[in-house]
């Protein structure tokens, strides 16, 4: 199973990546523009991984794995 979107706002990671590529916006700006990651918050770290890797489909991970991955991605 993979995570491909912010469920609460129905915004795909592919959409966020296209927007980022067009505008240069980062996580905070994309969240403000689309609402992605602003409701339940479960997708926030997945969005960070998608933005860091360019992948629009992220494998489902445990909370620990996801935090570690996101930390590595944001420090790179």
Protein architecture, described:
The protein contains 4 helices and 4 strands. Strand 2 (5-6) and strand 3 form a beta hairpin. The chain has helices spanning 13-23, 27-34, 44-53, 63-75, and strands at 2-3, 5-6, 11-12, 58-59. It has one domain (2-75). The strands form 2 sheets. A two-stranded antiparallel ribbon has the order 1-4. With 76 residues, it is mainly α.
Layout of secondary structure:
Elements (H helix, E strand, L loop, with lengths): L1 E2 L1 E2 L4 E2 H11 L3 H8 L9 H10 L4 E2 L3 H13 L1
Antiparallel strand pairs: 1-4, 2-3
Strand order in the sheet with the most strands: 1-4
Instruction: Kindly name the structural category.
Output: mainly alpha
Share of helix, binned: 55-70%
Number of strands: 4
- Main sheet overview: 2 strands, antiparallel
The 3D shape can be described as globular
| Average pLDDT score | 92
Query: For the terminal residues, how far apart are their CA atoms?
Result: 26 Å
Low-pLDDT segments: none
Rg (CA only) = 11 Å
User: How large is the share of residues in beta strands?
Assistant: 5-15%
Order of helices and strands: EEEHHHEH
Please, how many helices?
A: 4
- Give the tally of structural domains: 1
């Amino acid at each position: 199973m993979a995570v491909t979107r912010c469920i609460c706002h129905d915004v795909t990671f592919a959409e966020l990546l296209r927007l980022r590529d067009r505008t240069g916006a980062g996580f905070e700006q994309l969240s403000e523009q689309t609402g992605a990651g602003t409701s339940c918050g479960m997708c926030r770290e997945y969005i960070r991984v998608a933005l860091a890797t360019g992948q629009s489909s992220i494998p489902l991970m445990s909370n620990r794995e996801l935090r570690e991955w996101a930390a590595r991605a944001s420090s790179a």
